[in-house]
Amino acid sequence: MDLKSGYPFWAVSNGLMQAFPRLETDHRCDVAVLGGGITGALIADELAGHGFDVAILEQRDIGWGSTAASTALLQYEIDTHLVDLAKRHGEADAALAYRACADAIDQLHAVASAWRDVGFARNASLYYASRRRDVRALEEEHAARRRHGLEVELLDAGRVQEDYGFDAPAALLSRQGARVDPYRLTHRLLQRLQKQGASVFDRTRVVEIRTTSRGVALRTDTGFSVRAAHLVIAAGYASQHWLKKSVARNRSSYAVISDPLSEEALGFLSDTLLWETARPYLYARSTSDHRLLIGGEDDAVDIPAKRDARVEKKARTLLKRLHDLFPALETTPAFSWAGTFAETEDGLPFFGPHAQWGPRVHFAMAYGGNGITYSMLGAGLLRALIERRPHPLWPLFSFERLER
C-alpha cells in the first residue's frame, strides 16, 4: 500500500537512519510484531521490557510508512468530544478514555526521555471555535472535562485575542500536550531493542498467517517462517488487509512545513499545539528546529495517484488559512506531503483479538488523530491480554464494542 505522497519532513530530515537485516532464516519467538512503525515500536518496547522475546517484521524500511508522514501532535483530546463519546458509550467509559489518553502523554514523555534527539517537548493545546455556533459545544465540553478531573480552561474571544493574537469566539486551553519526531523515536526504540537482543527485520513481507491452539505461524514472501506464541498486527492502515470486513475508513491528510522561523515570529506556537472545531480541522505545531508544521484539509481520497496530484494545492490552502489567522506571520514553505490515515466511526482505536483469527492474533489499530497516544495505551493493554490479566480499557478498545 502506497501510504504517502510528496516529501514528508521526517523522512527528508532524517533519511534512512539505519537498515536492519532482512529475515533470511526460520525464526522462533514469544511475540511477533508485524509492523515497524511507531505503533509496533512502542508495543515491542513494552513487551520486551517485561521479559518477552520479541521479533519485529516490517515489509518496508523501518518507520518508512505512515510514521514518516505523521505530524505527531500528541494530545489527550480525542477527535470525538467527550460529551459525544459519552452519548455512544456512557459517560464513565468516555471519561476513562480521556483520562487514559492524558496519562499516555506522561508515559510517552517517560519513553522519549531516554534520548535527547527525538524532538520531544511538552506543549499546551489550544482548541479554538471555528464559528460562533461552536461556542456552546465548547462550553459543554469544558464542563464535562472539568467534571472528570481534566484540567482545562475556557477562554472567551477577548482572552484569545489578548493572549494569542487572533480572532476566535472561544477556545479551550489545556496543558497536557506534546510533540515528537515519530520517525526518529521509532528508530531509537528499535535500535535499543536490537542491542538488548530483540530481533528486528525490515524488507520482510509476511504473506500468510496460520493459527493453532498453541501459537501462530507466519510465512514470508521468500519462504521463511516465523513461529510465535502470539502475533501483534501493528501494520497501520494496512492492518485491515488481514480482516474480511473493514472496521475503519481510509482518508488522506495533508501537511506543509516552513523554513525555520525565529522564536519571535513563532510566538505562542513555539510551545502550543493549535487546532480548531471545524471538521476537517486546521492544526499547527512547531518543531525542535523552529519550523512551523501546518496540517489538515483531510479528504476521502484513497487513491495514491489522486492524492499525489492534490498535495501542492492543499499546501497552498493550508498556508492561506494560517495567514488568514495570523496575517503578520510570514512563512516560506519548505516541504509538503500527504499521508493515508484511517478513522473509526467513534474515534476510538481497536486493540486485541478479532473473532476471525482467535485469541493469539492481536490487532493494534491506533486509528484517528491521536494515533501515537493510542499506541502508547495499546502497548500496555496488549501486554495485559497476553499475560491474561484484566485491563480497564479492554472493553472499550476491543472489537466487541462493534456488537453493542
From TrEMBL:
<keyword id="KW-0560">Oxidoreductase</keyword>
<dbReference type="InterPro" id="IPR006076">
    <property type="entry name" value="FAD-dep_OxRdtase"/>
</dbReference>
<feature type="domain" description="FAD dependent oxidoreductase">
    <location>
        <begin position="30"/>
        <end position="382"/>
    </location>
</feature>
<dbReference type="InterPro" id="IPR036188">
    <property type="entry name" value="FAD/NAD-bd_sf"/>
</dbReference>
<dbReference type="Pfam" id="PF01266">
    <property type="entry name" value="DAO"/>
</dbReference>
<protein>
    <submittedName>
        <fullName>FAD-binding oxidoreductase</fullName>
    </submittedName>
</protein>
